[in-house]
Write a structure and sequence with these properties.
The complex is a heterodimer of chains A (228) and B (85).
Chain A: H1 3-34, H2 36-42, H3 45-74, H4 85-111, H5 118-138, H6 141-163, H7 169-194, H8 203-226
Helix pairs in contact in A: 1-3, 1-8, 3-4, 4-5, 4-6, 4-7, 5-6, 6-7, 7-8
Chain B: H1 6-19, E1 23-25, H2 26-33, H3 37-49, E2 53-56, E3 59-62, H4 64-82
Antiparallel strand pairs in B: 1-3, 2-3
Classes of the chains: A mainly alpha (228), B alpha+beta (85).
Amino acid sequence: MPPGFQGMIQNFAIGTELIYSFVIIACCLIIYFGTRELYSLTNYRGIKYFRQAFLFFAIAFFFRSFIKFLILLFNSENLFNIMHPVFAIATTLLFMYFSSLAIFYLFYSIAWKKYNKKWIVYALNLLALIISIVAIASNNILIYLILNLITILCAVILIIYAYSKKSKFKKISQLFIIYLLLLVFWTLNIIDLFIPNFLQPIQLLVYFISIGVFFAILYKVLTKIGSK
Amino acid sequence: MVKRNKLEIIKDILKIIQDSHGLIKITPLIRKSNLSSQGFYQYLDGLIYKKLVLKTDGHIKLTQKGTNYLERYSSIVGFIDEFGL
């Protein structure tokens, strides 16, 4: 492949990453800051966890784009070849920690009324940290994904069980579809980051649908907080 | 009778104050809020802490934040309901 053409592809990939990350981070921050007034008026815990989930998504996507940017710029699949191991571990750990935490908080924002214990929040933080450390120590991204998905599956079962007898269940189940889509594309984004060639043929499609899912949530938020 | 949730009770208390031109004595407020005395004072402490109302010389005054709460109440409830929070 001619070096000029390769450079063009690299620039296109970096450009795509920057635009993709910018759009997702912007969506998350608009949701976070857009709901600030509702939270400051009520101090309602459900709103608090929901907002924090999107703040953590924004932080996770920032670290994701940082890792991806370095990988593309230095044309290396291993972060340890690019930067000092301490920084490589810290960046990966922060990405994994905030990424897990975002998903955990999102599901807890639905479940908190039924499982209203303060220690659960600490447990979720600890769990996210342990999963991230185990994944980094084992150097296996599948362990990270499997542990997260097991935790989320347990959360989903508990939520379905808690709400199954309520009339609210229909509403919750509609919301579940969006959250499960978010979960699927969150998983694909992590695979895309750590196994870059795996999703290459459909990478743009994954990015477009991920943006679509975040836009759908943002649209729902804006229509609700905008209606007086 | 349907049991009111916390947000609804707060809205009702603030609405009573607003309907009294933003200032009301504690005794009629307790009576109109349909709460026990103990329950009412728990809510009142919360409202003062959140700066939705002010306590001055035996009167309760609605703050600008309290007025905002009433204006935004339907948005707050709609948002919580939409996202199952």
